[in-house]
Design a protein that fits this description.
The protein has 354 residues and is α/β, with parallel strands linked by helices. Helix content is 42%, strand content 18%. It has a five-stranded mixed β-sheet with strand order 3-2-1-4-5, sandwiched between helices. A hairpin with a 3-residue loop joins strand 2 and strand 3. It is globular. The protein starts with a strand and ends in a 33-residue tail after the last helix. The structure holds 5'-O-[(R)-(carboxyoxy)(hydroxy)phosphoryl]adenosine and zinc ion (ZN). Zinc ion binds next to helix 4.
């Protein structure tokens, strides 16, 4: 069954076609970065309207890329949550309507399940069970994954998500939206010895995170040191050094909690997904950490770390193939617990082909 995947939960319109026999057939993405950049963050109403504009042209593009007629699509998967309500409703309405018109089943996919399963699209996918670190703009979660839909939340952020902390701190440093990649680039020029920022919540047991205190610490340091900076060059150096200290603190915190999660569960596979998993320093740090534990870490390819339609097509296929689908009514779930998802018998892995 060829599945069409539609992602519209935030500021990226993603469309993809997945075939369990041949793997990913086509995918296309439109990023709204330019649209929101002038506002310094995502404007929900503009996001919804842009999804309306982009979705059908992207759909035509992936069908053409794959050389498929609409009648060859066997099911439709759309992101039903969590995310921005209006943005989600665009994907849900279009996805459900296409499925109705084509006479095929539709399924609403949990966005974080999409991220979590994205490494399954790679050549050497992880086997179940594994620990997943989900690090996106809206979520930071450690999850024990026994199969598709068999999720146990081990820990999560009590306040800001890791990506959100990157974005807010980048804003403090005057960097453009989206802040994560910009901050990471600036951190490359920073001196790692100048500041050491606190690693939040690593001195107590448990696998929860908290990044809002780190953001405040960054702001305080920035204000104090800026008052002392002699000239523009010193200020530029300060910003790079602060970016570096902030990134080191977040990466170190995430790595420490991943190690704990692997030790606590006794699992030897770690999946890291969501926008922040594109971060190079995080990848290097986790590689060292899992090697020490004799474990292995799996990532989606860089373009599928951030939001995309491919992961939704894949997660949707897992559920459609197991017979799950929606009634004709559709809904969006801006808040939605990963643990409430129904399990998929047998794990939902494609027969040797991804
Ligand atoms: O998964 P994603 O595309 O969207 C959500 O589901 O939220 O994640 C976006 C987040 C943003 O906060 C962005 O700043 C962050 O991922 N991000 C990064 C990097 N690339 C994207 N953060 C740190 N370093 C990066 N290289
Ligand atoms: Zn995401």
């Amino acid at each position: 069954m060829i599945v069409l995947g539609i992602e519209t939960s935030c500021d990226e319109t993603g469309v993809a076609l997945y075939d369990p026999a041949r793997g990913l057939l086509a995918h296309a993405l439109h990023s709204q970065v330019d649209l929101h950049a002038v506002y310094g963050g995502v404007v929900p109403e503009l996001a919804s309207r842009d999804h309306v504009r982009r979705l059908l042209p992207l759909l035509r593009r992936v069908l053409a890329q794959a050389g498929l007629a609409p009648g060859e699509v066997g099911g439709v998967a759309y992101t039903a949550g969590p995310g921005l309500a209006g943005a989600l409703l665009v994907g849900a309405a279009v996805g459900r309507s296409l499925a109705w018109a084509w006479g095929v089943p539709a399924v609403g996919v949990h966005h974080m399940e999409g991220h979590l399963l994205a490494p399954m699209l790679e050549e050497d996918p992880p086997a179940f069970p594994f620990v997943a670190l989900l690090v996106s703009g809206g979520h930071t979660q450690l999850v024990a994954v026994d199969g598709v839909g068999r999720y146990r939340l081990l820990g999560e952020s009590l306040d800001d998500a890791a990506g959100e902390a990157f974005d807010k701190t980048a804003k403090l440093l005057g960097l453009p939206y989206p802040g994560g990649p910009a901050l990471a680039a600036l951190a490359e020029q920073g001196d790692p010895e100048r500041f050491r920022f606190p690693r939040p919540m690593v001195d107590r047991p448990g696998l929860d995170f908290s990044f809002s205190g780190l953001k405040t610490y960054t702001l305080t340091t920035l204000r104090e040191e800026e008052a002392r900076a002699a000239d523009a060059a010193a200020r530029a150096r300060l910003h790079a050094d602060i970016a570096r200290a902030f990134e080191e603190a977040v990466v170190d915190t995430l790595a420490i909690k991943c190690r704990r999660a692997l030790e606590q569960t006794g699992l030897a596979r770690l999946v890291v997904a969501g926008g922040v998993s594109a971060n190079r320093r995080l990848r290097a740090r986790l590689a060292a950490e899992v090697e020490r534990l004799g474990a292995r870490v799996y990532y989606p390819r860089p373009e599928f770390c951030t939001d995309n339609g491919a992961m939704i097509a894949y997660a949707g296929w897992c559920r459609l193939a197991a017979g799950q689908h929606e009634p004709l009514a559709f809904t969006a779930r801006p808040r939605w617990s990963l643990e409430s998802l129904p399990p998929v018998a047998g794990g939902g892995l494609p027969p040797g082909a991804v």
